[in-house]
Amino acid sequence: MKSRGETPLRADAARNRERVLRIAREQLAAGDDSLQLNTIARLAGVGVGTVYRHFPGRQALLEAVSSASLEKLAERAESAATGAEPLAELHELLRFALTRALNELGFAEVLESPSAADARTTALKSRFDRALGKLLRRATQDGHVRADLRASDIRRLLGGTTHALRCGPHPPRLVKTYLSTLTTSLRPT
Amino acid sequence: MKSRGETPLRADAARNRERVLRIAREQLAAGDDSLQLNTIARLAGVGVGTVYRHFPGRQALLEAVSSASLEKLAERAESAATGAEPLAELHELLRFALTRALNELGFAEVLESPSAADARTTALKSRFDRALGKLLRRATQDGHVRADLRASDIRRLLGGTTHALRCGPHPPRLVKTYLSTLTTSLRPT
Amino acid sequence: MKSRGETPLRADAARNRERVLRIAREQLAAGDDSLQLNTIARLAGVGVGTVYRHFPGRQALLEAVSSASLEKLAERAESAATGAEPLAELHELLRFALTRALNELGFAEVLESPSAADARTTALKSRFDRALGKLLRRATQDGHVRADLRASDIRRLLGGTTHALRCGPHPPRLVKTYLSTLTTSLRPT
Amino acid sequence: MKSRGETPLRADAARNRERVLRIAREQLAAGDDSLQLNTIARLAGVGVGTVYRHFPGRQALLEAVSSASLEKLAERAESAATGAEPLAELHELLRFALTRALNELGFAEVLESPSAADARTTALKSRFDRALGKLLRRATQDGHVRADLRASDIRRLLGGTTHALRCGPHPPRLVKTYLSTLTTSLRPT
DNA sequence: CATGAATGAGAATTCATTCAT
DNA sequence: AATGAATGAATTCTCATTCAT
């Protein structure tokens, strides 16, 4: 039994894993965030057991589906953290995150959750939080952002805005408006 | 068939209705927002059918439970709409609504929803929206609030803030902070 | 809601209950003691939910199926307890119990179990134990039975004998032999 | 294909076999007699396939785990068969067997079963049966034991006693008592 | 020989809603 | 009006066994 961080999957296992992920993404794209493992297994043409082997539950699958976006977001945050204009960077980061959260059902859930099923998710969120925290501090020192908000608060407030948009019609104009309220909401009082 | 505006209930029917509502409130207070009609019927000591007669589904029951708070909120909004200082009135109204939404599971759901199962709920929300709309206009004219927000947006943003608070720990300090971001978020850009 | 010990069932409910019990008995008679509620529901032509309403689990169903025999056994024990010849009564009681346990799959399980799912089962076992205890004391005083055995031990030893017979072929002759060893086993040393 | 009586195992195969057996024993010692081959494989750090290669099923594994005890028991029986006092030897043999059966989950199952998955088990049981049969005959001739019991019956009755003890609490005193009933049960009527 | 991914039937249980009583 | 029995699809998860690598 070889021990290493990332176990390389056997070719067929990797193929199945991808199939499941693809179907899961399709389900989410179709507006169904229940992610029933049985249904997904059937649609993916694999046994239920296979799905359970790769993803021990809905949450794990959700995190796997969102991991690419989460990583992308973390990268964005890291690059933003060192940008010349903290406030502008922060706004752009929020815009990016909100867009993703709106277009990828389930992403907000992962982002706002205080816990995670998979250690990799926790790690990615930490990366994001660290970078965002740095960005926040810089923006705060510039007097642009209130000082009592932590990275986790931003994640939660993002989730809140996503929720507000999702619970009714959300034409582009409204998305823009709510995003604007979100950025405004961070100003010092 | 008698003609009536508000259906007068037979004494025993009214008693049953109240029992069901009381139990539903208890369940919500206990942190269970699933509002399973079977369970509620059992706890209330009535048949499921009786619950269904009074409330044709979870949503209807939820709205009935929240109606008192919703009415209270509408009244507050109406009184706020004519207050001397629109902005202060608005803030106080938001504080009140958020507090209720946090303490009464299900209230935010009713408040933010674009639809309703019961006509009375729709009516109450309209009352609220009309009053809040008036207040918003006044605050906007004072230059305190951005002009592109309608009453329904405020309800949705309130729901968003509630969601953000509920998805993690929310000690009083955080509630205060998030409320503050909510009020700030309405400022013109 | 009327309160009483034995709720009388609605006619159709009673019919369903009986159907389920009949099928359960058939399954047991066919040598299947798994008593899968799904299967039983299907065979009985009722919904699974109906089975669960009447019997909240395998154990409850098993006890319901065995209750008639258990009651009969308790009655026998009560009558035996006052018989003229304690030892003969005891032997006959054991013979009766063993016969039942062999012919009714599941009965031994209920009889030997230290716990019960249904209060009625507990009550019946208590009745049996009291009567058997009395009989044991009388037989002990006559010097026919060792003094360190309680009624629950007899139930367990009966279960043991049943087990020994069931785990291999058990033609009538062997049943008789093992029953004989059981009665012999109670003698003082 | 090499011809062989006892298959000599390759060193690593032997090591794997031992690992699996060790884990299986641990599981049983921990009170889990389900012996799920997947679980055992994982705990042993080998693939399921490896477990299946060595032991084609739960029963085979169980027998392998119990084989040492079974052999020990056969030896005891053989030595007992030639002892000076058949009855005393028999009692001691029963005491030994019962103790093992109680302390080693699964041993009673192997002992009482009329069939076996592995030929070695069958052989060991035959050895035991032959020796015990001899002992029984001697004890019978002495008038201490009833004549209608065969070795297989003793195995079954032992299993019964084990079952009776296992289905409830079994403090040492009770073990002693039930063992006493077992030995008593063999007396001629 | 060893591996462990895959299988997929199957088991247990729940719950929203209907409708006969 | 009230009752609560019945429904049964739906959901979650397990595990013995096979077989491709």
Describe, in plain words, how this protein is organized in 3D.
The structure is a homotetramer of 189-residue chains. With 189 residues, chain A is mainly α. Chain A has two domains: 9-55, Arc Repressor Mutant, subunit A, CATH 1.10.10; 66-185, Tetracycline Repressor, domain 2 (Orthogonal Bundle). Helices cover 71% and strands 0% of the residues of chain A. In chain A, helix 1 (11-29) crosses helix 4 (58-81) and helix 2 (37-44) crosses helix 3. Chain A is elongated and about 55 Å long. The termini of chain A are far apart. The A-B interface holds A 112-114, 146, 148-149, 152-153, 156-157, 159-165, 167-169, 174, 177-178, 180-182, 184-187, 189 and B 112-114, 146, 148-149, 152-153, 156-157, 159-165, 167-169, 174, 177-178, 180-182, 184-187, 189. Chain C binds a DNA duplex (21 and 21 nucleotides) through helix 1, helix 2 and helix 3.
Chain-wise SSE layout:
The structure is a homotetramer of 189-residue chains.
Chain A: H1 11-29, H2 37-44, H3 48-54, H4 58-81, H5 86-103, H6 107-112, H7 119-141, H8 151-166, H9 172-185
Helix pairs in contact in A: 1-2, 1-4, 2-3, 4-5, 4-7, 5-7, 5-8, 8-9
The structure holds a DNA duplex (21 and 21 nucleotides).
